Amino acid sequence: MTRFEDLPDLLLAPLEGKGDEAWFHTPEGKWSPAQVVDHVAGALELSARGFQARAEKPPMARRPRTVRQRFFLVLVFGTGLFPRGRRAPDGTVPAERPDRAATEQRLRAAVAVFLGLEQRLARRAHDLYLKHPVFGDLNLGEWMTFHVRHAEHHAKQVRARIPPPA
Fold it and tell me: Where are the domains positioned within the chain?
């Protein structure tokens, strides 16, 4: 599994030295690499904002997970497989043509924010949760694992969508 701090390289290294043709290459009905990176950055930002908003709240208890939530948690966290057919949550739907420099910076900044939260909220590892729409309540470390698996999933798409050299 990829280290959290390596997420920008995981997504951006395949695009390094490639121009806008690769950045915006959009197969029919799919997102371009630009949109994939924008989506991952948006997902990181959204959950980071959730933890920032809850950082000073009183301790929480995790709600029990349903059988469905436990199944998908084992599937995604354990194997990295993402079932098809899920729509991106509001706030993570990418822009049509994301600016490259701004999107790369957003991704790097969101990773840095999470790493800062990891240090700042270490004492809250078992009493601060943010609900995930599929997995239920996750603590910060579990969200970081989710984001690694999510980025690994989307990094495969980025690599697959880079057009071959002409």
Answer: 4-161
Torsion angle (degrees, nearest 10) of CA 83, 103, 3, 47: -60
Alpha-carbon 145 to chain mean position? 9
Q: What is the CATH code of the structural domain delimited by 4-161? A: 1.20.120.450
**Tens-digit pLDDT profile for residues 66-91:** 999 999 999 999 999 999 888 999 99
Q: Report which of 87, 72, 96, 58 is spatially closest to residue 146, judged by C-alpha positions.
A: 72
pTM here is: 0.97
Q: Measuring CA to CA, how many Å separate 50 from each of 1, 7, 9, 22, 35?
A: 25, 20, 25, 33, 22
* Cβ atoms of residues 155 and 14 within 8 Å: yes
Tell me what the mean pLDDT of segment 141-160 comes to: 98
pLDDT (tens digit per residue) in 29-79: 999 999 999 999 999 999 999 999 999 999 999 999 999 999 999 999 999
